[in-house]
Amino acid sequence: MRIHFVTACRNVLSNTEALIQSVRDQASSDWSHTIVDDCSSDGTADRLRALTAGDSRFKIVSNSERRHALRNIVDVSRGLREDEVVATLDGDDVLCNPRTVEILLAEYERGADVVWTAHKWDTNGMNISGHMPDRVDPYAWPWVSSHLRTFRASLLGRVSDDNFMNHRGEWFKRGYDQALMLPVLRVGGARKYVPEVCYQYNIDSAAIPSAERDWAERDQIATVNIVRSRGFLR
């Protein structure tokens, strides 16, 4: 068993070194990492390839057209072996605990199907993750399974792509965290929240134009409302 980090990113050049180093700093070597560059215009893909050259644990993929985070993550995850564990790591964030892989593998070896950890915001150290009982409906439970999000790759075999799309058959572009995790939590069995901080969520609002940020926030809220109101789609 190993942890497979999946990163979908766009224009994160300034964070590439920190991102790669935070994964390399893991005490356990039982990991691999696929990074999908979603049509960056700032040289992100070239820098990632330079940073990971000669390191077979990393795979860098460059899209010819934008697919957005959710579809990129699902596509990569569906191509993994069933005994692998998916861990989503955003391109503008970092791991902040060198024992992250070790901690996760220990929980999966104990039988967990979905595991998430505590995190910290870079601005104030806030953590919004928390415990979720195994038997509650995740769609009706408060959002507590934020970063670091992980799950057995095999679970996606029980989740149809309809769960990741709107009523027009379009993949969700925003709010991918809940669109991804809620159906996985629904089909999974044992859930485990690890209160140890393993992930740093970097907030850089200044890097996003205000008009684009406002649109993104509205789109994210719309996605969450759709996903939660309709529930799991078989």
Short summary:
By secondary structure, the protein is α/β, with parallel strands linked by helices. It is built from 6 helices and 8 strands, in the order βαβαβαββαββαβα. α5 (176-187) packs parallel to α6.
Strand and helix map with partners:
Elements: E1 3-9, H1 16-24, E2 31-37, H2 44-52, E3 58-62, H3 68-78, E4 85-88, E5 94-95, H4 100-109, E6 114-121, E7 149-152, H5 176-187, E8 191-201, H6 210-230
Parallel strand pairs: 1-2, 1-4, 2-3, 6-8
Antiparallel strand pairs: 4-7, 5-8, 6-7
Q: Taking all residues together, what is the mean pLDDT?
A: 94
Indicate the low-confidence ranges by residue numbers: none
Please, what is the oligomeric state?
single chain
The value of Rg in angstroms is 17 Å
Task: Describe it.
With 234 residues, this protein is of the alpha/beta class. The chain contains 6 helices and 8 strands; from the N terminus they run βαβαβαββαββαβα. It has helices at 16-24, 44-52, 68-78, 100-109, 176-187, 210-230, and strands at residues 3-9, 31-37, 58-62, 85-88, 94-95, 114-121, 149-152, 191-201. It has an 8-stranded mixed beta sheet, with helices on both faces. Strand 2, helix 2 (44-52) and strand 3 (58-62) form a beta-alpha-beta unit. It is globular and about 45 Å long. It starts with a strand and ends with a helix.
